[in-house]
Amino acid sequence: MSLGSVIRQARIDAGLSIDDLSERTSIRGGLLKEIESDDFTKCGGETYARGHLRNIAPHVKMDATMLLELYANEQSMQPRGIHEMLAENNVMTHPVDKKTISWKTLAGISLATLALLGAVQIIISNSKTTSITNPDVVATESATAEPSNSPVAETTQSEQPAPALPRDSYSSGTGVSVSVSATNGKSWLFVSDANGTTLYSGQIRSGQKLNFSSTTRVSLKVGNAGVVDVSVNGKAAQQIGTDGEVVSVSYGVTS
What we know:
By secondary structure, the chain is an alpha+beta fold. It contains seven helices and nine strands, in the order αααααααβββββββββ.
């Protein structure tokens, strides 16, 4: 499912029309329609496109990081420069025009520099230099580095950092346990608990299994429902959807 389709489905799920979303984000309705059709050519460049996605995400109850990741996978054609990354959080800032220096100013600076150099040459040529003869030679003692007898601290095996293990479990409690496995492909996945706390936001790759637990409820939003299997409290759950379908489901302690 493409980025534009994900945004369109999320907008519909949030009960918003194009005009509603335009009013809340101050983005033209025509541009919103083009974004939902995966056409980002009129956004003004990647920095502005990313800024629009950050603006849209909270109004359609989506995670901005997820939309930016989908944009990078589908739309981004080149690595971003540091200036673009710094400007990403303020896409409405107008570029500042660089001021140019006129040729008259440059000519004045050059003439002033030449005049100064000429004055320095005259001063140097008229000055007398005094040579110092038979300078006193001061003998200094050379310091010889003595070998240190202090023992060299050796790094023990226990001080070596342990390799980081890949994380596959996320929890805000232990009342309900949900496992999500991607068996036939990859999908984007958003997981939260009953308090609205985000447990996970990102992709689940083919063959990957992620585990989630919460005190009372675990809610899932899946972008490609047909490729995932879900088990709740150790029992296999019913298939939640088909390939390419965006599905939202919740599981409680008694599920």
